[in-house]
Amino acid sequence: MKLAGEILILVLMLLSNGRVLTIRKPHLDPLVMLAPLSFLLSSLMIFAHSDDVFTLMIFFISILVLLSNFHALIRYGSRLVIDRYSPLMKTWAWFTTILSAGTLITLLVFAPVNVSAKELGVTDTQQTYSGSFTKGFEPSEKFERATGFVHEYSTNPNLSMRSNVILFMPDKRGDLEHYYPFLIFLSKAGYTIISGDFYSRDCRWVHTIEDSRMLRRLGLVIRSANNTSRFLSQREFYTYNFSLEYETMLSIASEKYGPDCKFFLVTDNLAVTAAEDMKRKYPDLITGIYDISSSPEYKTPGYGFIRQTDPLFAKYLGFSKEKSLESVKACVAATSEAVNAVWLKK
Fold first, then answer.
1. Cα dihedral: 275, 279, 281, 286 (round 10)
2. Among 151, 265, 281, 307, fewest CB within 10 Å belongs to which?
3. Which residues contact 144 (CB under 8 A, 6 or more apart)?
4. Using one digit for the tens of pLDDT, what is the confidence trace for 101-143?
């Protein structure tokens, strides 16, 4: 959905400013209304998804397109004939058209690898929560600000009582979005998985505006990629935050699946220490732990499976886009082996 939305916005902007280069006779120009529409859609895209390079770039171009069409919008709103466009407007049109076309081409080249949960027979169910780690979380009501987004991945979502469930904790440099192929294929292997992303104000990761849902992943990725040693020096602080999320997820999952349900923790990189602490604290509840960063086929630990979900950033790190999903499947196989070694032993 995100990719389709970004492509649509870029096409609208191409039509909006590309028209300036083709108009020959003065007339009412309804295509000018595509400029504010593009800006509106790009703004909604930022609020609907966490930001990445393409989301921010498209938003920036939409601002340029809107500003360059400001005079034309006023004339069209007054039902005035659009006169011939000035050389300055045509220059802006060339610039934004080339920028939009270049962004569209780059977006298509580095588009995420499509993984369809529906085609693989997996159901992705989301439940939103409101609250905080201090006061607790409750299912959010309509129009209530959500601070928690909990997903269940299952091939049989109708079973409410389960005896064994995988609880997956994403590294915050990835969030669930960038583990999606792994979670879908792992669920297809026959496991029920529960995981979540939380954005409560009493669990800050950066202590700046970057803690917002829109900016957190991008902010952490930039900090980690630019100065990895400094970023990793704060492991103890991150472990405390992960512990808060583990406690909350275990509470939500126990209520959902019943008090007899046992959990196997699957983690990535920075979340491992907190998982080990939880295993010691709840030995009867947690049956085992597996860190996917120990899988040799998983080349981007901490960032998620970005060779499939964010090929542009993967390229920056020196990894090519992988359409075959072989590394994802290999990591799923390693995870299944670790889980079965514990569950089948019983």
1. 120
2. 281
3. 130
4. 999 999 999 999 999 999 999 999 999 999 999 999 999 988 8
251-276 pLDDT, tens digit each: 999 999 988 899 999 999 999 999 99
Contact status, residue 332 vs residue 189, Cβ threshold 8 Å: yes
Residue 308 Cα distances to 37, 105, 151, 170, 299, angstroms: 30, 18, 20, 16, 12
Q: How far is CA 43 from each of CA 38, 60, 306, rounded to the nearest angstrom?
A: 9, 10, 24
Supply 57's token pair.
């770039």
DSSP 8-state secondary structure symbol assigned to residue 242: H
Which residue's entry shows tokens 């659009």?
A: 82
Alpha helices in the chain (DSSP H): 2-18, 34-48, 53-68, 70-77, 87-109, 180-188, 216-226, 228-232, 235-257, 272-281, 306-309, 311-316, 326-343
